[in-house]
Q: What sequence folds into this?
């Protein structure tokens, strides 16, 4: 049932309950859309204020709003927050005892509860469905709606059943789906699976102007890491690592180097995990070394840097994680330490997955490879990934501040394509490079690739390393091969402060091939 509430009255509620005097961005329009009984699809970056878009209408509408949320730990935080604001909120999930569940249900049925947070698993239970059918529900919010999509970074199969369940409760209930992941692919998938094609879409820009994006070679990473943190002493930062073991190692490494750091990962005892998180939030430690288990729902506004020790599995994931820097709108630095070996490692993790999942994962990784290797403005690439077009370079990323030298490479591209074709598209970059350079080794010989027309055709290429914008001749050229004074040795790029390539790539062809081929590997 649509309800009429003036914008002035909404503002009064905003002030009275939350203490804010202005709505941010499109919050007001989003709230009005739900009040009018329409469906909404809200795409906003992390920290933009999505929660308020369902919390406020829940307060002003009669009945209970259902909030579907994927993380049990987050639910409790949100409920505590709402209770602190004087709003009766409850949650229903597997952490409750039977009698606690009954108490919550009775409170909802008596009409006292404004917001009920439910985990998708609990929604699937018949007894909970029966209960919801009896309750007076105002609308349904689907938080972290990207969990519905296999293209997202956090797929939860139970999310796929949500729409059918909502319809079995009441097909006229307004729905508001919210996410901070907005690649066009994920957006379409969410709308289709939730049957939300009719929803009004509220998409705000994903540009985080205050974040500086940088990619560094993983060479001497521990030294680089310690140097960076020490030169930003007193600032809060998060270091993301792929494995729990690595998290522990790096936390120890920082600790012995006099940096106040603690580990956080799902394998830690919950009490320790909570204590470590609290220490970070309360500024007893400066650096949180964590797996991606850390961060969702954590509202620490003054995180000044987010460092990726290992390459993330997707650009969405990367964007979520870096998004935790600079939520207070002050500057934040996002550094990704990149080596192609990490991509190969991540690719290996996928080997037991089903074919379609494996293909998805490969594509997501390929996007990551592109991002790490291209000399294009990082922000342009990231926003483009989220379906946003940026006309100008940002001027606030490594590629803008230290442009990669560029060169014309028509002949080289043709040679690579020819080599790929002649080897029947079956070989990796290293092998193609050997063929182009005319290297005779057992693999090349065993496939008779030394007899191909293209064999050795890349030997005579004179790499034109003339920089178009070659202004960063600073001191950090430790990759320059000083022991090898032969100036003729071809190099794809003049090594610069941010060397994008793996330390062990010997032939310039290898990185070149990886940059121009579709999968990047
Ligand atoms: P998201 O879910 O989009 O990541 P949150 O809902 O957690 O973001 O909001 C981020 C922060 O912004 C929270 O601290 C929240 O209280 C604050 N916030 C939300 N709306 C407003 C507003 N209109 N004015 C001021 N602060 C707001
Ligand atoms: Zn830029």
A:
């Amino acid at each position: 049932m649509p309800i009429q509430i003036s914008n002035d009255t909404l503002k009064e509620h905003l002030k009275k309950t939350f203490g804010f005097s202005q709505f941010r961005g499109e919050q007001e329009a989003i709230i009005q859309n739900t009040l009018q009984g329409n469906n909404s699809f809200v795409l906003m970056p992390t920290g933009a204020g999505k929660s308020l878009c369902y919390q406020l209408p829940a307060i002003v509408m009669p009945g209970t709003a259902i909030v579907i949320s994927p993380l049990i730990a987050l639910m409790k935080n949100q409920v505590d927050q709402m209770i602190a604001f004087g709003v009766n909120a409850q949650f229903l999930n597997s952490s409750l005892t039977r009698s606690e569940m009954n108490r919550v249900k009775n409170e909802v049925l008596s009409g006292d509860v404004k917001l009920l947070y439910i985990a998708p698993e609990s929604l699937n239970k018949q007894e909970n469905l029966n209960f919801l059918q009896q309750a007076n529900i105002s609308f349904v919010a689907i938080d972290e709606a990207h969990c519905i999509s296999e293209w997202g970074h956090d797929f939860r199969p139970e999310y796929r059943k949500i729409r059918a369940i909502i319809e079995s409760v009441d097909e006229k209930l307004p729905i508001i789906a919210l996410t901070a992941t907005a690649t066009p692919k994920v957006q379409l998938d969410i709308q289709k699976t939730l049957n939300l094609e009719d929803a009004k879409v509220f998409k705000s820009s994903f540009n985080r102007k205050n974040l500086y994006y940088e990619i560094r070679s993983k060479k001497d990473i521990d030294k680089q890491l310690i140097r960076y943190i020490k030169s930003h002493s007193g600032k809060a930062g998060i270091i993301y690592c792929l494995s729990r073991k690595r998290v522990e190692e790096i936390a120890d490494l920082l600790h012995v180097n006099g940096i106040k750091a603690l580990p956080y990962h799902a394998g830690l005892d919950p009490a320790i995990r909570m204590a470590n998180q609290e220490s970070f939030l309360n500024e007893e430690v400066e650096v949180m070394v964590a797996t991606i288990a850390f961060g969702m729902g954590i509202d620490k506004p003054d995180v000044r840097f987010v460092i990726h020790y290992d390459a993330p599995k997707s650009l969405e994931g990367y964007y979520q994680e870096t998004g935790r820097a600079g939520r207070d709108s002050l500057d934040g630095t996002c550094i990704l330490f990149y080596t192609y070996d990490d991509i190969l490692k991540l690719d290996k993790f996928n080997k037991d997955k089903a074919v379609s999942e494996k293909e998805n994962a490969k594509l997501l990784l390929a996007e990551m490879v592109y991002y790490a290797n291209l000399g294009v403005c990082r922000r342009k690439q990231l926003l483009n990934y989220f379906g946003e077009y940026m006309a100008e370079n940002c001027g606030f990323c490594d590629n803008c501040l230290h442009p990669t030298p560029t060169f014309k490479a028509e002949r080289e591209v043709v040679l690579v394509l020819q080599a790929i074709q002649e080897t029947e598209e079956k070989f990796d970059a290293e092998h193609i490079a050997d063929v182009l350079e005319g290297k005779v080794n057992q693999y090349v010989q065993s496939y008779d690739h030394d007899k191909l027309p293209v064999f050795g055709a890349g030997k005579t290429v004179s790499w034109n390393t003339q920089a178009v914008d070659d202004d960063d001749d600073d001191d950090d050229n430790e990759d320059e091969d000083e022991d090898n004074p032969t100036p003729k040795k071809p190099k794809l790029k003049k090594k610069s402060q941010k060397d994008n390539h793996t330390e062990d790539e010997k032939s310039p062809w290898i990185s070149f091939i990886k940059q121009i081929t579709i999968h990047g590997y």
User: Anything to note?
Assistant: The longest strand covers residues 211-217. The chain is about 40% helix and 10% strand.
